[in-house]
Amino acid sequence: MEKNKYGKELDVAVKVVQMACSLCKTVQKGLISGSFNQVKSKNDDSPVTVADWSVQATVSWMLCEYFGSESVSIIAEEDVQALSEPDSEGLLGMVVTTVNEALAKAPIYGLNGPGKALMAPQVLEAISRCNSSGGPVGKHWVLDPVDGTLGFVRGDQYAIALALIDDGKVVIGILGCPNYPLEKESLNYHDNGLHKFSSSSTSEVGCVIYTSKGSGEAWMQPLIHGNEGLQGPNCAKLIKVSAIDDPALATFCESVEGANTNHSFTAGLANGVGLRNKPLRVHSMVKYAAIARGDAEIYMKFARGGYKEKIWDHAAGVLIVQEAGGVVTDAGGRPLNFSRGMYLEGLDRGIVACSGVKLHEKIIGAVYASWDSSNL
Ligand SMILES: Nc1ncnc2c1ncn2[C@@H]1O[C@H](COP(=O)(O)OS(=O)(=O)O)[C@@H](OP(=O)(O)O)[C@H]1O
Ligand SMILES: [Mg+2]
């Protein structure tokens, strides 16, 4: 693939995700201190916050600005339903303020913001235009404005995930991980016995990880603070998957919540292939980032009964792991299909991402050996 085919898209998208990370850090701080206390529940009872809508509006506005509102197609997680309810005026006001504060900082990131502040109808329009249904033809942006919202409201790990699909293939992937420590040493064991990222770490936190298809490279950029731009310590570093291929030395990651993946099934698989380390339970697509960066070797997700995985929960992370040298398939060993709309249609049982072929083959083999007795 031509190396710079998506160069402009990648350049703009990385900067937009940097902006979104800064926005989320501000909102998360406010949530924890109590000044941003509005968390809503969606129909499926999952939480949604000022940050989810604000990131979606900001990214949507920027992509339209740079790639033309007529032609940009965006598939994203949030809609404006809860935000448009009669008792949501205060919430909408917070979203409008948050979006305008973020857009006003665009020049820090080398981007052009709007000439004047957006009004509520423009913000609602920016959010609701992300309702593309995607598909096998043309370019579609895929956005999860705050992936791992539960982690976000807990002051823990979350991610901003943006990908570009072109004719059904993911061609660029960006993961903003505002709370992910830059140094691996910041991984440690918490009191509950699970292998988890330390939130009390003194190491610098926050990065944006990105790649483009066929480059064979994935990059990690620290978050941009203030006016320092991307000079000096903010230069991006190449990242690579772990070289460990011995299951006895490998670590696997999975969802924190047992409602999102079957912990007892993955524990059985882990035992079956000879994994000895405790699982690294982390909210959000930071799990893909952990594999791409070599902090863990295996990520497994086996959703319960009939749940259909959404493309925005995987697109960016899958490409980043692949370009960093890893392997990602469904549990039948087949590639994930991002060309069939908002769902990963045809997904066989679950998702398995590994740092290398050897571990991947072992996990897929273990799935075949134990599936029939799993009740999944
Ligand atoms: N029932 C069910 N089964 C499987 N997956 C589900 C389910 N419900 C939700 N989701 C999706 O899972 C996303 C969160 O996954 P995580 O791995 O981050 O979960 S966890 O917070 O660590 O438990 C989460 O993403 P966000 O909504 O962006 O947080 C959902 O898209
Ligand atoms: Mg998500």
From TrEMBL:
Its cofactor is Mg(2+). Its EC number is 3.1.3.7. GO terms for molecular function: 3'(2'),5'-bisphosphate nucleotidase activity; metal ion binding. Mg(2+) binds at residues 77, 144, 147, 313. CDD domains: PAP_phosphatase. The keyword Cytoplasm does not apply. It catalyses: 3'-phosphoadenylyl sulfate + H2O = adenosine 5'-phosphosulfate + phosphate; adenosine 3',5'-bisphosphate + H2O = AMP + phosphate. InterPro entries: DPNP, Inositol_monoP_metal-BS, Inositol_monoP_superfamily, Inositol_monophosphatase-like, Inositol_monophosphatase_CS. GO terms for biological process: inositol phosphate metabolic process; phosphatidylinositol phosphate biosynthetic process; sulfate assimilation. It comes from the Eukaryota. Keywords: Hydrolase, Magnesium, Metal-binding. Converts adenosine 3'-phosphate 5'-phosphosulfate (PAPS) to adenosine 5'-phosphosulfate (APS) and 3'(2')-phosphoadenosine 5'-phosphate (PAP) to AMP. PANTHER family: 3'(2'),5'-BISPHOSPHATE NUCLEOTIDASE, PHOSPHATASE. Belongs to the inositol monophosphatase superfamily. This is 3'(2'),5'-bisphosphate nucleotidase. The lineage of its organism: Eukaryota, Viridiplantae, Streptophyta, Embryophyta, Tracheophyta.
